[in-house]
């Protein structure tokens, strides 16, 4: 592994740790401190302002109209729909469920690679997809039968769609990440997302209980700052930097770091509990991810024929 690939692995590892820590922190904020819609637009607007400020001190890159259109699509998939559904879904579910569902992203990425990049469908890949989907379905259906569960079917389904949108973003943004810096990509993506969401969500920020306290709660404010800076600005700065150096499939594989970190934190602070269904779901998803990512790519098969 050369130094550039190693840098890509380190960057995406840090990104997924930041996302994982965000799950229990966001769960703490929702909805008693900040409503999910308010937290979503705060993340978008904060990151937008930060990236445009940083862009003033970086090399200017001209983006043609065609690429701006693709950045708009990436913004909807990778930021707006992805983060919006994730926050609303997390409000109705649990950090452990969210982290397990996040590990299905590599499966989504590889399925998209079959459709878009014409990657071959092998037995190992097919069986891996089946196991991963089985794990996700077990998690979803177990939520509907646990009457005292803090998870819900619609919450889990929202996070599954959120994961699919993130996978689409990883595949579509790879070519753009090779042409533009992460700051250039993100300043446009977050601008598009903010302008799209502000008319529907700004009232939720004004009504947030966190901003109507007589005495400032610094734990509350610290949690909000982490979500805005540590779980939005920093990760979205690092993702394109990682995509420059390693493949989208490899990037998506690091999602399995999230359940390890998020579940540990959530259980330790009493936000969630582990059940045998969740453990089995995690095992199925992890095994599916491993099998899918270990299957041969089209490039490997073409090399084998030579």
TrEMBL record:
Q: Which residues form a coiled coil?
A: none
Query: What membrane topology does this protein have?
Result: Multi-pass membrane protein
Q: Which UniProt keywords apply?
A: Cell membrane, Membrane, Transmembrane, Transmembrane helix
Does the UniProt entry include the keyword Transmembrane?
yes
Quote the protein name from its UniProt record.
Answer: EamA family transporter
**Subcellular localization:** Cell membrane
Under SUPFAM superfamilies, the record lists: Multidrug resistance efflux transporter EmrE
Where do transmembrane segments lie in this chain? 9-29, 41-59, 71-90, 96-117, 129-146, 158-176, 188-206, 218-239, 251-269, 275-293
Query: For this UniProt entry, what's an example GO CC term?
Result: plasma membrane
Q: Where is the EamA domain?
A: 7-140, 155-293
Specify the superkingdom.
Answer: Bacteria
Organism ancestry: Bacteria, Pseudomonadati, Bacteroidota, Bacteroidia, Bacteroidales
Q: Which Pfam families match?
A: EamA
């Amino acid at each position: 592994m050369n130094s550039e690939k190693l840098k890509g692995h380190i960057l995406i590892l840090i990104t997924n740790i930041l996302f994982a820590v965000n799950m229990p922190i966001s769960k703490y904020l929702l909805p008693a401190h900040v409503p999910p819609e308010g937290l979503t637009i705060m993340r978008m607007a904060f990151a937008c302002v930060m990236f445009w400020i940083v862009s003033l001190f970086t090399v200017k890159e001209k983006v043609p109209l065609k690429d701006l259109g693709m950045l708009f699509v990436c913004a909807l998939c990778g930021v707006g729909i992805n983060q919006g559904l994730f926050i609303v879904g997390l409000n109705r579910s649990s950090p452990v469920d969210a982290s397990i569902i996040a590990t299905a992203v590599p499966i989504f990425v590889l399925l998209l690679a079959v459709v878009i990049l014409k990657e071959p469908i092998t037995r190992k890949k097919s069986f891996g997809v089946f196991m991963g989907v089985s794990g996700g379905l077990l998690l979803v259906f177990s939520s509907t039968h646990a009457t005292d569960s803090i998870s819900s079917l619609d919450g889990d389904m929202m996070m599954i769609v959120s994961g699919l949108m993130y996978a689409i973003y990883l595949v579509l943004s790879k070519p753009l990440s090779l042409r533009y810096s992460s700051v250039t990509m993100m300043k446009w993506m977050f601008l598009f997302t903010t302008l799209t969401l502000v008319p529907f969500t700004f009232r939720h920020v004004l009504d947030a209980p966190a901003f109507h306290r007589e005495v400032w709660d610094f734990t509350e404010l610290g949690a909000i700052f982490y979500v805005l800076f540590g779980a939005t600005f920093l990760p979205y700065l690092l993702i394109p930097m990682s995509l420059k150096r390693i493949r989208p499939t490899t990037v998506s594989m690091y999602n399995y770091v999230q359940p390890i970190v998020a579940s540990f934190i959530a259980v330790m602070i009493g936000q969630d509990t582990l059940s045998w269904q969740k453990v089995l779901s995690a095992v199925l998803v992890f095994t599916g991810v491993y099998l899918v990512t270990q299957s041969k790519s089209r490039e490997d098969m073409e090399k084998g024929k030579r």
